[in-house]
Design a protein that fits this description.
α10 (about 245-255) packs antiparallel against α24 (about 580-605) and α14 (about 320-330) packs across α17. The protein contains 26 helices and 26 strands. About 35% of the residues lie in helices and about 20% in strands. It has about 725 residues and is α+β, with helices and mostly antiparallel strands. The longest helix has 28 residues, at about 10-40. The termini are far apart. Strands 2, 3, 4, 5 and 10 form a 5-stranded mixed β-sheet that branches. Strands 12-11-21-20-19 form a 5-stranded antiparallel β-sheet, sandwiched between helices. Strands 1-8-9 form a 3-stranded antiparallel β-sheet.
Length: about 725
Amino acid sequence: MPLGRDDKVPQLRLTGVQYGILGVFLILVFGLWRLQVVGSGYYAQLAEKNRVRNVPILAPRGKILDREGRIIVDNYPSFSALLLRDASRNVLNDVTAIAAGLHMDPDEVRERVKKFAFTPQYQPIFLKDDITPDELAFIESHRNELPELETILAHRRLYPKGGFMAHLIGYVGEVSEDMLNTPQWEFYNPGDVVGKSGVELSYNDILMGKNGFRRALVNNRGKEVGRLDETPAEPGRPLKLTVDIDLQIAAEQALADRNGAVVAMDPRNGEILAMASRPVFDPNSFAVRIKKSEWNRLATDDDHPLLNKAIQAQLAPGSVFKIIMATAGLQEGIAQTLQVNCGGGHNFYGRFFKCWVVSEHRTHGVVGITKAIYQSCDVFFYTLAEKLGIDRIAKWAHLLGLGQKTGIDLPNEVSGVMPSEEWKIKNFKQKWYAGETISVGIGQGAVAVTPIQLARAVGAVTMDGKLQKPHVAFPDELARYGMQNASKIQSETEVPIDPQNWETITDAMAQVVEPGVGTAPSAHLNGIDFAGKTGSAQTMSNALAKRIGHRVRDNGWFVGVTPRRNPEIIVAVLLEEGEHGYLAARVASQVIKAYVEKQRARQNNQNLYRAAAAPGLENAPLASVAVIAAMKSQRVLAQDRRALLAEIEQRRRGPDGAATAGAKPAPRADDFFEMAGFFGEPDADGHGEALHAARFKVKLENARAPVGMAVGR
């Protein structure tokens, strides 16, 4: 039926429909333009990610070596399981299967996915480290079902067994979220393994390499179907420490399983030769990922195994502090003429202060500065403290580095405490009372030091006032690696000490280990110029111990050197609840002995070596072992005599074994042996060298060997 005029579509409605169609068309065109033009780069990138996957290549950390280049910390190859999130599938749907195959708790897998949810999708999640062969086989056999699982070769830290050198070396671990929020770690990524303590932390930038990556082709299911290119990883650089493994072994064995610390340092330059702390922990537990239960056990242990007691134990030094007191008393002109009569104690400010000898039912009698040191007379140092006053004591203690960090290149060093009037007002808003000074005089009261501080301070006294900054890395090596603060690793400060006072103190320290004279005769070392100072320090007052009904044994301290003046090595020992300083002295003596024996063995293992110690022959370049032993007035060992006689006999007979005409018979062991040698020294005008000849005369016997010398041009 044809439409009438009244049945036609109104023009207004028709126009609206036309505009609607046009609007839809424009929207479609705009969407197409936005996709094809504006977002072309973005969607091309997404498409590329669907096709290309970046797989990281982890860089191994640099090895840690001792001063002779021997490996302390190495790496071992290990596989880690990665969870890739750049595939289209939802990884949370596969959590149960993944956890079962990797022997993990499903909640742990979900927690790790949640933890890294804020990171870019193209960054993989390190799901499990150091996977087992069967876990590796699970991943390889389920590539189709679980394409989001991947493996990566990682180089894990391999530390010495038994916690050897654990506190000095430190450990590594996964960088935490809190660390990533600090400037030091802002350029690191979640999952990176970094140094967490010790050398591993201090020199993380050197030891940690730069990761590489490889680009792999994947299909729409996320399965790898090919490889494009690869950017290799840059391994971390090796780091040589000043530590000597042989001395470290000696220190660890001497300390055994007793709680405390040992520090051995070269006071001439501040190089740390050994550092041990007890109890220990196993850094291998951290090399992968430490279990929460294990971490809680270490963190809550009352003996604090994670604490490096060499630089973090702040304790009263006891009588070792008397070396600082002696230095202050002599430099202030008081101790030289001070004489006290030790009757087992003395009254100061209305209170009786005992001397330690009371426990042995004896007294020291008349005591001067020398006897006060080697007999460790408390009454003498009580009196000296009263005359000096707290501020003069604090002045010299601060000059020798107490009450402040040493600046050692290890993290988390503590400063200790050296009290003074200013210190008490600042910290307690109270005045200092004169009676408090008396206890400070024997290293008690508010005085608190670390073993490294005590080693440095006493080392400075024996070095005629040369105070060195301790360090575990070689500054020249750090400078070669471009570290800006390399020059600050080593520094020297001069503390004014009069030569006569220096000799008085060091000679008295040498008598500390003399049998029948000092407080540590059992630590005496025959043939070694060994000096030191013992100390025993209370951890709580006797009154408090009596009140709580629990007796706590004193801490034992000892600091020793060899030789007594300008020493080559200084050893500080802390034995927690060691009770007696002489027990700590025995520990130190074992380290000192190991050092000296190594130096002598190194010399004796060479046929010829420099004769710097020969009187009048400072410029002689070479001389035989037996000759040097004679010039140093040391005994010539039987095996050295036999070797020397065999060499003489060989020379007498000549290269063919026949006796040389006119040659004298080989000398007997009790005969004298003469050896000629040449050496040069600068001539008078300084433009050349004058050649000298010398003849050495050595008697080959067990007794000390005399030597005669004639020099001519």
